[in-house]
Amino acid sequence: MQSKVEPGWRFWLLMVLFGGGAALSLGVALLFLLLGLAMTTPLLALPAGSAVSFLNIAFTSGLVGVVMLLGLSSLLRTPPPPAAVAAASRRRLALASLAMILWLPLVGLFRIVETSPLVWLFLPPLVVIGAAIPAWWLVEIARRGLDVLPRGRGWQILSTSLALTIPLTLVLSLVMLAVFVVVLGVYLNTQPQLLADLQQFFEQFDPAQMDMQQLEALANQVLSNPVIVALLISLVAGVTPMLEELLKPLALWLYAGDRLTPAQGFVGGALCGAAFGLWENLSALAGAGEGSGVLILVARVGSLLLHTTATAVLGWGLASFWAQRRYLGRLIGAYLLAVGLHAFWNLFGVLSAVPVTPQLPLISRLPASPETFNPLWLALPGMALLNLFLLVGLNRRLQVETRRMMAAAVSGDNSPAPTDDTFIKQENWNGLDSAGN
């Protein structure tokens, strides 16, 4: 008879984290829902966009609260047997693929709703659904054929990422941005003419009557300065990717003592990255409702893919190192690859969006013109394909290793097991280790 395992520190930490996070998120959702509905009344005479933004935030906070409730529930319920989980995994991928097919007409509906008088009623749920479906699909692609996490552990990882990783990343990003502003301010004080031009521009800046020629001239002046370009690149393609890739798999560290297999680290990392990307996308869509939402919804699928792939790769590297300390090189390589993917994505994204091309080696020689065709526009789709190739390729590799290990276990092979041990320990299906964590 198996003795009962008492819950340990991780169980209680997650209980407090998920319970408090759910209460806070649902409270914020209710507050913004009431404020948004109040703004739709004719008595206040407020723009429709204000109410839509508040309702978008309400639905986003509501989604976060529901995820944390599911994470809380997974801590308390008795998990099903492994066979039931394997069958559910196949159904999940089929359902997620069907949802992704239906996502395409939903994008068209998104555009129609944004311009309708009832935008405040229909757009907020569409924002949540439109952002969540690609995240779900990418997670199912990452864990296709890899039923390696205990049932409910996925909700725990998602909830931890939303409750802990996102706030910590936001705080540290603000600190990093403040340092950047200070450094930039110190440098601008040594450039009186550029500082005067910037002050004049912002004093005359009117979003309703934006002068594109004036904006392009100012951007050309700023981006022709090598010091400012170096500072911007160091922030966008240097410090930001290094910080975010370091923090995104934070939820996995709670399970480092479980000696996660590489496959578990890969799937868990994908969940961490998808949670981070989903939050970013929902934040970007908070202001949807004035015709720009469709472009944001579609374009940010690439960012979601980047975060899912990069953190899945890093999760694989982390779990490999935790299982076998000799895999330090794999961990370092995985982190550098994740940072590199993120850095180039950010760099090409900025270069594709600015109205002028910065004076950089190689890039400044491209035959680009905003009025015709910019070759840099091809960089982001190319990076997206590379990320998808990495996600699918590493998944297939881990599937092969999983099948090999399970076949060896069934046949009673007594030969030394490969170091990339990817099958799950059946006694860990209740999500608690021997210490109740």
Automatic annotation (TrEMBL):
Protein's UniProt name: PrsW family intramembrane metalloprotease
Keyword NAD: no
Organism: Bellilinea caldifistulae
Keywords of this entry: Membrane, Transmembrane, Transmembrane helix
Superkingdom to which the source organism belongs: Bacteria
Entry's transmembrane regions: 12-39, 51-72, 93-113, 119-139, 160-188, 222-243, 263-282, 294-319, 331-356, 376-395
Keyword presence, Cytoplasm: no
GO terms, molecular function: peptidase activity
Pfam family, one: PrsW-protease
InterPro entries xref list: PrsW
